[in-house]
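Structure, all two chains, one model.
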Amino acid sequence: MLIAPAVVYVLYLAFYPAIESVRGGFETPIHPFSLYNYHFVLSTFGTRPILNTFIVTGAALLLQFTVAFIVASLLSKPFKGRSAFTAIFLIPFGVATIVAAVIFHDMFSAYGGYVNSFINLFGFHAIDWEATFPKALLVLILADSWKNTPIVMLILLAGMSTIPSDLYSQAMVDGAGPFQRFFRITLPNMAGFIAIALMIRGISEFNIFAMALLIFPYQLLTTMTYSLFDIVNPDPSYAAATILLGFVLIFAVLIMIYRSKYSRVS
Amino acid sequence: MVSEYRSPKSKYYTYIGIAIFSFLVLLPIYILAIIALGDPSQTVAAYYPALIPSKFTLANFIKAFSGYGSVLIAAFYKSLETAFIVASLAILLGYHAAYGLSKLSFKVSSILIALLFFSTMIPSLTIAIPISVSFLKLGLYDSAFGLALAQELIVLPLTVFLMMGALQSVPKQLESQARVDGAGFFQTLYQVIFPLAIPGVISAFLLSWMMSWDEFTFAVILSPVHPTLPILIYFDSTARGDILTATSFSLLVTLPVIVLTIVLSKFIKGSYLTAGITG
């Protein structure tokens, strides 16, 4: 069979290590099965990394979807130069994650940062952006959204183009305003596409790593796993990785339920 | 199209909106360019750096290369090697898998597609650590080939979806005609169908090349001793390194990919990213 290599590949390099990771999380050098690693992880880091991960994921998805909806509805109308602007909006998609992190690190650094330089034009004082949790969170979310909104925008744009324009003209004849049209026609008809975009982005949001290492000096599930990775015995890092995997899978299942509930069968 | 029914005035609002968002998209790129090319006294060394610098210099690049040239070239070569292995392997595995999937019944193929898609849900970090342990035993740790094998996981599902789209555009009769004319199974697969799927193959190749070029998580865990370019940039932008060096390298990494993105913008479509999942 021609598919066999790809399937075996995925099974061997994705599923097998994942199971290994879960198994390793319950293992200590003395006991084959114990919850010690989880106790260790939670007592060292507390529940803060889990909470931070949720805050980052929620806030980033909210910003990305809001902006992506606005841009996609602008680009869904025919106008001169549309393809050129679509190409411009795709540029961040090609910029490496770590490069985006470096740029935003430079822009928001306390000393010699461009954002401080800009707010200074209006007479405000320089702000230390990484000093407190909400400000660092803002920088992380802006950087991540800058890089990833194009993907959401593309998926939503594909979804918008599947809605027949007759629906809109009929709604307008019936007297529906722009907000009613958005909430009653656009959103329900795009449930399938929204679910896919949520799935793709939500999972990578839980896994946000490279950017967080550089511009977010607070612990997330991923950075916690990475800092545990350096210690001699890998088992605690397996436990942390398993917690991460667990949350991602719960999230994925929730999205699938949403999709099967609201999406039309096409 | 969503709204063909609008007042002529709304066109101006569209342009204003587009202009604002274009500005926001391009601003960080502009700042990357002025830090890399500007005189340090006006960029990183100033408390309030100038938004439009007046002095430009290539000194940052020269300094980055002179102190660091061999490491940079090694990292560049490793990134390039890894990306080419990833992209070639993606075509090899993806083309065959997509052809096989297109021949199977809908029920079986959707289960296999779900399996492929499910693999993208597993966090890279969760599997990177067990992979690094087994790669240490196999001697693949820190090698370009080992890293490519791991990165392949990220690109393979997308490649298969892209290829399935490309194969759908090849007419079915052509295949049976080739078989009637006496072409063998593999001859049909490689000499009749493959040339017709070339546009899809090229876009899949370039996309997976690009994803490998940018990849961070697997690279930092599986290959920290001889790093790829993104890892080198990370090391340089932490306390130990030099932010000017990191910025210069960043510009070097970014330029080819931006060009590639603009060239590919016709192929990067939302419907590809969702292919195989919708319907």
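Chain B touches chain A through 95 residues (CB under 8 Å).
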